[in-house]
Amino acid sequence: MNTPICDFVKSYNDKNCIRAHMPGHKGESILGFEHLDITEIQGADSLFEASSIIRESEENASLLFGARTYYSTEGSSLCIRAMLYLTLLYAKKEGKAPLILAGRNAHKTFLSSVALLDLDVEWLYSDSSYLSCDINAETLDNKLSSMQEKPVAVYLTSPDYLGNMLDIKAISEVCNKHGVLLLVDNAHGAYLKFLDNSLHPIDLGATMCCDSAHKTLPVLTGGAYLHINQNSDEFFCDKAKGALSLFASTSPSYLILQSLDKANEYIENGYKENLRSFVKEANKLTAELIDNGYELISDEKLKITIATKSYGYEGTEFAQILRENNIECEFCDPDFVVLMLSLSNSTDAISALKNVLLSIKKREALLIKPPMLKKPQRVMSVRDAVMSNSKTVCVSDALNQVLSTVTLSCPPAVPILVCGELIDESAQKCFEYYQIENCDIVVK
Predict the structure, then answer these.
(1) What CA–CA distance (Å, rounded) separates 308 from 45?
(2) In order along the chain (444 residues), what is the average pLDDT of each group of 10 residues?
(3) CA gap 384, 311 in Å, rounded
(4) Contact predicate 156/167, CB 8 Å
(5) Which of 19, 149, 156, 341 could join 26 via S-S bond, C-beta 3.0 to 4.6 A?
(6) Taking a C-beta distance cutoff of 8 angstroms, is the pair 341, 350 a contact?
(7) How far apart are CA 40 and CA 22, in angstroms?
Protein backbone atom coordinates (compact mmCIF):
# COMPACT_ATOMS: atom_id res chain seq x y z
CA MET A 1 0.00 0.00 0.00
CA ASN A 2 1.40 3.39 -0.94
CA THR A 3 2.08 6.21 1.53
CA PRO A 4 1.31 9.43 -0.34
CA ILE A 5 1.69 11.85 2.57
CA CYS A 6 5.05 10.43 3.67
CA ASP A 7 6.25 10.36 0.05
CA PHE A 8 5.35 14.00 -0.50
CA VAL A 9 7.05 15.23 2.67
CA LYS A 10 10.22 13.27 1.89
CA SER A 11 10.29 14.64 -1.65
CA TYR A 12 9.74 18.17 -0.39
CA ASN A 13 12.49 17.87 2.21
CA ASP A 14 14.92 16.46 -0.34
CA LYS A 15 14.51 19.63 -2.45
CA ASN A 16 16.13 21.60 0.39
CA CYS A 17 14.18 24.70 -0.67
CA ILE A 18 13.94 27.93 1.29
CA ARG A 19 10.92 27.50 3.60
CA ALA A 20 9.28 30.92 3.49
CA HIS A 21 6.24 29.48 5.23
CA MET A 22 5.22 28.11 8.62
CA PRO A 23 6.36 26.46 10.92
CA GLY A 24 8.92 28.78 12.39
CA HIS A 25 11.64 26.16 12.82
CA LYS A 26 12.03 26.08 8.98
CA GLY A 27 13.03 22.45 9.12
CA GLU A 28 16.12 23.12 11.21
CA SER A 29 16.69 20.45 13.82
CA ILE A 30 16.26 21.04 17.51
CA LEU A 31 14.51 17.78 18.42
CA GLY A 32 15.49 15.88 15.29
CA PHE A 33 12.24 15.60 13.33
CA GLU A 34 11.61 19.19 12.28
CA HIS A 35 12.54 18.52 8.64
CA LEU A 36 9.40 16.36 8.39
CA ASP A 37 7.11 18.93 9.98
CA ILE A 38 5.34 21.04 7.37
CA THR A 39 2.07 22.88 6.86
CA GLU A 40 -0.50 23.10 4.05
CA ILE A 41 1.89 24.23 1.33
CA GLN A 42 1.24 23.70 -2.40
CA GLY A 43 0.82 19.98 -3.02
CA ALA A 44 0.55 19.01 0.63
CA ASP A 45 -3.27 18.96 0.52
CA SER A 46 -5.46 20.24 3.38
CA LEU A 47 -6.93 17.85 5.93
CA PHE A 48 -10.48 19.18 5.94
CA GLU A 49 -10.61 19.99 2.24
CA ALA A 50 -8.66 16.93 1.16
CA SER A 51 -8.51 16.37 -2.59
CA SER A 52 -5.10 14.78 -3.25
CA ILE A 53 -2.55 13.06 -1.01
CA ILE A 54 -4.54 13.17 2.24
CA ARG A 55 -7.66 12.03 0.47
CA GLU A 56 -5.70 9.17 -1.11
CA SER A 57 -4.30 8.16 2.27
CA GLU A 58 -7.74 8.27 3.91
CA GLU A 59 -9.07 6.10 1.09
CA ASN A 60 -6.30 3.60 1.85
CA ALA A 61 -7.40 3.57 5.50
CA SER A 62 -11.02 3.19 4.39
CA LEU A 63 -10.11 0.04 2.46
CA LEU A 64 -8.35 -1.42 5.49
CA PHE A 65 -11.21 -0.70 7.90
CA GLY A 66 -14.10 -1.37 5.52
CA ALA A 67 -15.62 2.01 6.31
CA ARG A 68 -15.56 5.63 5.24
CA THR A 69 -12.57 6.67 7.31
CA TYR A 70 -11.38 10.20 8.12
CA TYR A 71 -8.22 11.27 9.93
CA SER A 72 -7.95 13.26 13.13
CA THR A 73 -4.69 14.70 14.46
CA GLU A 74 -6.47 15.68 17.68
CA GLY A 75 -7.36 12.25 18.97
CA SER A 76 -10.73 10.60 19.40
CA SER A 77 -11.87 13.72 21.23
CA LEU A 78 -12.23 15.52 17.90
CA CYS A 79 -14.00 12.51 16.40
CA ILE A 80 -16.49 12.36 19.29
CA ARG A 81 -17.38 16.02 18.84
CA ALA A 82 -17.80 15.47 15.12
CA MET A 83 -19.98 12.38 15.64
CA LEU A 84 -22.29 14.25 17.95
CA TYR A 85 -22.49 17.27 15.65
CA LEU A 86 -23.38 14.97 12.74
CA THR A 87 -26.01 13.39 14.96
CA LEU A 88 -27.46 16.80 15.78
CA LEU A 89 -27.62 17.72 12.08
CA TYR A 90 -29.25 14.37 11.33
CA ALA A 91 -31.85 14.94 14.05
CA LYS A 92 -32.72 18.30 12.54
CA LYS A 93 -32.97 16.77 9.07
CA GLU A 94 -35.24 14.00 10.29
CA GLY A 95 -37.33 16.22 12.56
CA LYS A 96 -36.24 14.38 15.70
CA ALA A 97 -35.41 15.74 19.14
CA PRO A 98 -31.64 15.89 19.84
CA LEU A 99 -31.86 13.29 22.62
CA ILE A 100 -28.98 10.85 23.17
CA LEU A 101 -29.27 7.69 25.26
CA ALA A 102 -25.75 7.22 26.64
CA GLY A 103 -23.83 4.80 28.79
CA ARG A 104 -22.92 6.48 32.05
CA ASN A 105 -19.18 5.71 31.65
CA ALA A 106 -18.78 8.19 28.79
CA HIS A 107 -15.50 10.09 28.44
CA LYS A 108 -15.58 13.72 29.54
CA THR A 109 -15.22 14.76 25.88
CA PHE A 110 -18.76 13.49 25.42
CA LEU A 111 -19.92 15.90 28.12
CA SER A 112 -18.08 18.87 26.67
CA SER A 113 -19.63 18.06 23.29
CA VAL A 114 -23.10 17.84 24.81
CA ALA A 115 -22.56 21.24 26.41
CA LEU A 116 -21.31 22.84 23.20
CA LEU A 117 -24.11 21.38 21.06
CA ASP A 118 -26.89 21.69 23.66
CA LEU A 119 -27.86 18.03 23.32
CA ASP A 120 -30.12 16.32 25.81
CA VAL A 121 -28.83 13.14 27.48
CA GLU A 122 -30.58 10.32 29.25
CA TRP A 123 -28.18 8.00 31.03
CA LEU A 124 -27.99 4.23 30.98
CA TYR A 125 -26.76 2.89 34.32
CA SER A 126 -25.40 -0.40 35.64
CA ASP A 127 -24.05 -1.66 38.95
CA SER A 128 -20.49 -1.83 37.63
CA SER A 129 -17.56 0.42 38.45
CA TYR A 130 -18.01 4.01 37.32
CA LEU A 131 -15.53 3.10 34.57
CA SER A 132 -17.84 0.43 33.16
CA CYS A 133 -21.48 0.26 32.14
CA ASP A 134 -22.74 -3.27 31.50
CA ILE A 135 -25.46 -2.70 28.91
CA ASN A 136 -26.97 -5.66 27.08
CA ALA A 137 -29.29 -5.84 24.09
CA GLU A 138 -32.33 -7.01 26.04
CA THR A 139 -32.10 -4.18 28.58
CA LEU A 140 -31.63 -1.63 25.80
CA ASP A 141 -34.57 -3.07 23.85
CA ASN A 142 -36.81 -2.78 26.90
CA LYS A 143 -35.64 0.78 27.54
CA LEU A 144 -36.24 1.93 23.97
CA SER A 145 -39.63 0.19 23.88
CA SER A 146 -40.69 2.09 27.00
CA MET A 147 -39.75 5.52 25.67
CA GLN A 148 -42.55 7.59 24.18
CA GLU A 149 -40.01 9.77 22.42
CA LYS A 150 -37.18 7.74 20.96
CA PRO A 151 -33.64 9.13 21.11
CA VAL A 152 -31.92 9.99 17.87
CA ALA A 153 -28.94 7.87 18.92
CA VAL A 154 -27.50 5.48 21.48
CA TYR A 155 -23.93 6.30 22.54
CA LEU A 156 -21.75 3.61 24.14
CA THR A 157 -18.13 3.10 25.18
CA SER A 158 -16.66 -0.26 24.16
CA PRO A 159 -14.01 -1.28 25.08
CA ASP A 160 -14.06 0.74 28.26
CA TYR A 161 -11.01 1.76 30.28
CA LEU A 162 -10.96 -1.53 32.17
CA GLY A 163 -11.15 -3.57 28.96
CA ASN A 164 -14.78 -4.63 29.25
CA MET A 165 -16.56 -5.01 25.90
CA LEU A 166 -20.24 -4.84 25.03
CA ASP A 167 -22.12 -7.04 22.58
CA ILE A 168 -22.17 -4.35 19.90
CA LYS A 169 -23.62 -6.69 17.25
CA ALA A 170 -26.71 -7.50 19.31
CA ILE A 171 -27.04 -3.89 20.43
CA SER A 172 -26.82 -2.64 16.84
CA GLU A 173 -29.68 -4.95 15.89
CA VAL A 174 -31.79 -3.41 18.66
CA CYS A 175 -30.92 0.09 17.47
CA ASN A 176 -31.90 -0.81 13.90
CA LYS A 177 -35.19 -2.25 15.17
CA HIS A 178 -36.04 1.05 16.85
CA GLY A 179 -34.67 3.29 14.11
CA VAL A 180 -31.95 4.97 16.19
CA LEU A 181 -28.29 5.54 15.37
CA LEU A 182 -25.55 3.67 17.23
CA LEU A 183 -22.42 5.65 18.08
CA VAL A 184 -19.47 3.88 19.71
CA ASP A 185 -16.45 5.30 21.48
CA ASN A 186 -13.98 2.65 20.32
CA ALA A 187 -10.94 4.72 21.26
CA HIS A 188 -9.22 1.71 22.83
CA GLY A 189 -10.07 -0.73 20.05
CA ALA A 190 -8.59 0.20 16.67
CA TYR A 191 -6.88 -3.20 16.54
CA LEU A 192 -10.19 -5.07 16.94
CA LYS A 193 -10.72 -4.85 13.18
CA PHE A 194 -7.72 -7.10 12.59
CA LEU A 195 -8.53 -10.00 14.88
CA ASP A 196 -9.33 -13.25 13.08
CA ASN A 197 -12.99 -12.48 13.74
CA SER A 198 -13.35 -8.72 13.66
CA LEU A 199 -14.87 -7.13 16.76
CA HIS A 200 -14.70 -3.63 15.32
CA PRO A 201 -17.93 -1.65 15.90
CA ILE A 202 -18.38 -0.84 12.20
CA ASP A 203 -18.29 -4.53 11.30
CA LEU A 204 -20.77 -5.18 14.09
CA GLY A 205 -23.29 -2.64 12.81
CA ALA A 206 -22.47 0.71 14.44
CA THR A 207 -23.42 3.82 12.48
CA MET A 208 -20.25 5.69 13.46
CA CYS A 209 -17.32 5.16 15.78
CA CYS A 210 -14.00 6.69 16.73
CA ASP A 211 -10.67 4.86 17.09
CA SER A 212 -7.60 6.29 18.76
CA ALA A 213 -4.97 4.87 16.42
CA HIS A 214 -2.27 5.94 18.86
CA LYS A 215 -3.62 3.79 21.69
CA THR A 216 -3.05 0.35 20.13
CA LEU A 217 -1.36 0.95 16.75
CA PRO A 218 2.14 2.39 16.19
CA VAL A 219 0.85 5.92 15.56
CA LEU A 220 1.95 9.18 17.17
CA THR A 221 -0.15 10.50 20.03
CA GLY A 222 -3.15 12.37 18.62
CA GLY A 223 -3.63 10.15 15.59
CA ALA A 224 -7.22 8.91 15.37
CA TYR A 225 -9.96 7.84 12.97
CA LEU A 226 -13.60 8.75 12.50
CA HIS A 227 -15.32 5.78 10.85
CA ILE A 228 -18.72 5.97 9.17
CA ASN A 229 -20.55 2.78 8.20
CA GLN A 230 -20.78 2.42 4.43
CA ASN A 231 -24.42 1.39 4.83
CA SER A 232 -25.30 4.60 6.67
CA ASP A 233 -27.10 7.58 5.20
CA GLU A 234 -24.79 9.33 2.72
CA PHE A 235 -25.62 12.49 4.64
CA PHE A 236 -22.99 11.60 7.26
CA CYS A 237 -20.15 11.30 4.73
CA ASP A 238 -21.22 14.49 2.97
CA LYS A 239 -21.00 16.42 6.24
CA ALA A 240 -18.07 14.60 7.90
CA LYS A 241 -15.24 16.94 6.93
CA GLY A 242 -17.24 20.00 7.92
CA ALA A 243 -18.08 18.40 11.25
CA LEU A 244 -14.43 17.68 11.98
CA SER A 245 -13.26 21.13 10.90
CA LEU A 246 -15.83 22.85 13.12
CA PHE A 247 -13.98 21.73 16.25
CA ALA A 248 -10.43 21.25 14.97
CA SER A 249 -7.33 23.35 14.71
CA THR A 250 -6.69 24.85 11.28
CA SER A 251 -3.08 23.69 11.70
CA PRO A 252 -3.22 19.89 11.81
CA SER A 253 0.05 18.14 12.56
CA TYR A 254 1.71 16.74 9.45
CA LEU A 255 3.87 14.57 11.68
CA ILE A 256 0.72 12.84 12.92
CA LEU A 257 -0.71 12.67 9.40
CA GLN A 258 2.46 10.94 8.21
CA SER A 259 2.18 8.54 11.12
CA LEU A 260 -1.41 7.65 10.16
CA ASP A 261 -0.34 7.33 6.53
CA LYS A 262 2.55 5.01 7.38
CA ALA A 263 0.27 2.92 9.60
CA ASN A 264 -1.72 1.90 6.52
CA GLU A 265 1.39 0.25 5.07
CA TYR A 266 2.20 -1.28 8.48
CA ILE A 267 -1.28 -2.78 8.77
CA GLU A 268 -1.31 -4.15 5.23
CA ASN A 269 2.10 -5.78 5.56
CA GLY A 270 1.28 -8.66 7.89
CA TYR A 271 -0.30 -6.91 10.87
CA LYS A 272 -3.21 -9.33 11.09
CA GLU A 273 -0.92 -12.36 11.12
CA ASN A 274 1.44 -10.76 13.62
CA LEU A 275 -1.51 -9.79 15.82
CA ARG A 276 -2.70 -13.39 15.81
CA SER A 277 0.69 -14.58 17.10
CA PHE A 278 0.90 -11.80 19.68
CA VAL A 279 -2.59 -12.55 21.03
CA LYS A 280 -1.56 -16.18 21.54
CA GLU A 281 1.40 -15.04 23.64
CA ALA A 282 -0.77 -12.57 25.54
CA ASN A 283 -3.25 -15.36 26.27
CA LYS A 284 -0.43 -17.50 27.67
CA LEU A 285 0.62 -14.64 29.92
CA THR A 286 -2.88 -14.07 31.27
CA ALA A 287 -3.33 -17.80 31.84
CA GLU A 288 -0.13 -17.90 33.91
CA LEU A 289 -1.24 -14.89 35.93
CA ILE A 290 -4.60 -16.51 36.69
CA ASP A 291 -2.85 -19.73 37.69
CA ASN A 292 -0.72 -17.64 40.05
CA GLY A 293 -3.84 -16.29 41.80
CA TYR A 294 -4.45 -13.04 39.93
CA GLU A 295 -8.00 -11.93 39.23
CA LEU A 296 -8.19 -10.45 35.72
CA ILE A 297 -11.35 -8.76 34.50
CA SER A 298 -10.62 -7.53 30.95
CA ASP A 299 -12.39 -8.94 27.88
CA GLU A 300 -9.81 -7.30 25.64
CA LYS A 301 -6.93 -9.20 24.08
CA LEU A 302 -4.38 -6.39 24.47
CA LYS A 303 -5.34 -5.21 27.93
CA ILE A 304 -4.55 -6.83 31.27
CA THR A 305 -6.71 -5.44 34.05
CA ILE A 306 -5.84 -6.71 37.51
CA ALA A 307 -8.37 -6.52 40.33
CA THR A 308 -5.58 -6.00 42.82
CA LYS A 309 -7.53 -6.16 46.08
CA SER A 310 -8.20 -9.87 45.66
CA TYR A 311 -4.39 -10.23 45.42
CA GLY A 312 -3.94 -8.25 48.64
CA TYR A 313 -3.00 -4.81 47.31
CA GLU A 314 -4.63 -1.51 46.54
CA GLY A 315 -4.17 -0.64 42.90
CA THR A 316 -2.08 2.42 43.64
CA GLU A 317 0.29 0.40 45.84
CA PHE A 318 0.56 -2.31 43.21
CA ALA A 319 1.34 0.27 40.51
CA GLN A 320 4.13 1.65 42.68
CA ILE A 321 5.66 -1.83 42.98
CA LEU A 322 5.60 -2.10 39.19
CA ARG A 323 7.16 1.35 38.89
CA GLU A 324 9.99 0.32 41.22
CA ASN A 325 10.61 -2.56 38.80
CA ASN A 326 10.77 -0.21 35.80
CA ILE A 327 7.22 -0.92 34.59
CA GLU A 328 4.76 1.92 34.10
CA CYS A 329 1.10 0.95 33.90
CA GLU A 330 -1.55 2.70 31.84
CA PHE A 331 -3.86 3.40 34.78
CA CYS A 332 -4.40 2.61 38.43
CA ASP A 333 -6.93 3.47 41.10
CA PRO A 334 -7.64 1.89 44.51
CA ASP A 335 -9.14 -1.21 42.88
CA PHE A 336 -7.47 -1.82 39.53
CA VAL A 337 -4.24 -1.71 37.58
CA VAL A 338 -4.51 -1.56 33.81
CA LEU A 339 -1.66 -2.73 31.57
CA MET A 340 -1.96 -2.04 27.83
CA LEU A 341 0.05 -4.14 25.40
CA SER A 342 0.74 -3.85 21.68
CA LEU A 343 2.86 -5.55 19.06
CA SER A 344 5.52 -2.94 19.76
CA ASN A 345 6.16 -4.59 23.15
CA SER A 346 9.11 -6.88 22.48
CA THR A 347 9.29 -10.51 23.52
CA ASP A 348 11.87 -9.51 26.12
CA ALA A 349 9.56 -6.82 27.48
CA ILE A 350 6.65 -9.26 27.82
CA SER A 351 8.92 -11.77 29.52
CA ALA A 352 10.21 -9.15 31.95
CA LEU A 353 6.64 -8.04 32.72
CA LYS A 354 5.62 -11.64 33.43
CA ASN A 355 8.61 -12.22 35.70
CA VAL A 356 7.87 -9.14 37.77
CA LEU A 357 4.16 -9.94 38.10
CA LEU A 358 4.86 -13.53 39.12
CA SER A 359 7.45 -12.36 41.67
CA ILE A 360 4.92 -10.25 43.58
CA LYS A 361 3.69 -12.29 46.53
CA LYS A 362 -0.02 -12.73 46.98
CA ARG A 363 -1.34 -11.43 50.29
CA GLU A 364 -4.59 -11.75 52.16
CA ALA A 365 -7.40 -10.21 50.11
CA LEU A 366 -8.53 -6.66 50.92
CA LEU A 367 -12.27 -6.61 51.50
CA ILE A 368 -12.89 -2.86 51.31
CA LYS A 369 -15.23 -2.14 48.40
CA PRO A 370 -15.61 1.20 46.63
CA PRO A 371 -18.61 3.29 47.70
CA MET A 372 -21.68 3.11 45.50
CA LEU A 373 -23.01 6.28 43.93
CA LYS A 374 -26.74 6.76 44.33
CA LYS A 375 -28.54 7.67 41.12
CA PRO A 376 -27.80 11.40 40.98
CA GLN A 377 -30.41 14.12 40.96
CA ARG A 378 -30.27 16.28 37.86
CA VAL A 379 -30.79 19.94 38.70
CA MET A 380 -29.95 21.57 35.38
CA SER A 381 -28.77 20.59 31.91
CA VAL A 382 -25.13 19.85 31.16
CA ARG A 383 -24.93 22.98 29.02
CA ASP A 384 -26.50 25.26 31.64
CA ALA A 385 -24.15 23.93 34.30
CA VAL A 386 -21.03 24.31 32.17
CA MET A 387 -22.03 27.82 31.09
CA SER A 388 -22.85 28.97 34.64
CA ASN A 389 -20.65 31.01 36.92
CA SER A 390 -18.69 28.64 39.10
CA LYS A 391 -16.12 28.41 41.84
CA THR A 392 -13.76 25.75 43.09
CA VAL A 393 -14.39 24.34 46.56
CA CYS A 394 -13.18 21.44 48.66
CA VAL A 395 -15.27 18.31 48.17
CA SER A 396 -16.00 18.35 51.91
CA ASP A 397 -17.71 21.74 51.45
CA ALA A 398 -19.69 20.77 48.35
CA LEU A 399 -22.64 18.95 49.91
CA ASN A 400 -25.95 19.80 48.16
CA GLN A 401 -24.18 21.98 45.60
CA VAL A 402 -24.50 21.53 41.83
CA LEU A 403 -21.46 20.30 39.92
CA SER A 404 -20.44 22.83 37.29
CA THR A 405 -17.60 21.35 35.25
CA VAL A 406 -15.76 18.07 34.98
CA THR A 407 -12.14 18.56 36.05
CA LEU A 408 -10.97 14.94 35.96
CA SER A 409 -7.63 14.30 34.29
CA CYS A 410 -6.95 11.65 31.68
CA PRO A 411 -6.66 8.80 32.40
CA PRO A 412 -9.40 7.91 32.96
CA ALA A 413 -11.40 11.12 32.24
CA VAL A 414 -14.65 9.34 33.11
CA PRO A 415 -16.75 11.53 35.41
CA ILE A 416 -18.23 10.15 38.61
CA LEU A 417 -20.81 12.91 38.65
CA VAL A 418 -22.07 14.83 35.63
CA CYS A 419 -22.29 18.58 35.24
CA GLY A 420 -25.66 19.82 36.48
CA GLU A 421 -26.12 17.07 39.06
CA LEU A 422 -26.45 17.51 42.82
CA ILE A 423 -23.49 16.56 44.99
CA ASP A 424 -24.96 14.37 47.71
CA GLU A 425 -23.22 12.38 50.45
CA SER A 426 -22.71 9.35 48.22
CA ALA A 427 -21.01 11.53 45.60
CA GLN A 428 -18.79 13.06 48.28
CA LYS A 429 -17.74 9.59 49.43
CA CYS A 430 -16.93 8.58 45.87
CA PHE A 431 -14.88 11.73 45.29
CA GLU A 432 -12.94 11.12 48.47
CA TYR A 433 -12.40 7.44 47.69
CA TYR A 434 -10.90 8.31 44.31
CA GLN A 435 -8.83 11.11 45.90
CA ILE A 436 -10.65 13.98 44.22
CA GLU A 437 -10.10 16.85 46.65
CA ASN A 438 -11.70 19.79 44.85
CA CYS A 439 -14.61 20.33 42.49
CA ASP A 440 -16.28 23.20 40.64
CA ILE A 441 -19.80 24.14 41.71
CA VAL A 442 -22.43 26.41 40.23
CA VAL A 443 -22.57 29.84 41.82
CA LYS A 444 -26.22 30.85 42.14
Answers:
(1) 49
(2) 95 93 92 94 96 98 98 98 98 97 96 96 90 95 96 98 97 98 98 98 98 97 98 97 97 98 98 98 97 96 97 98 97 97 96 97 96 94 96 96 84 92 96 93 93
(3) 44
(4) no
(5) 19
(6) yes
(7) 9
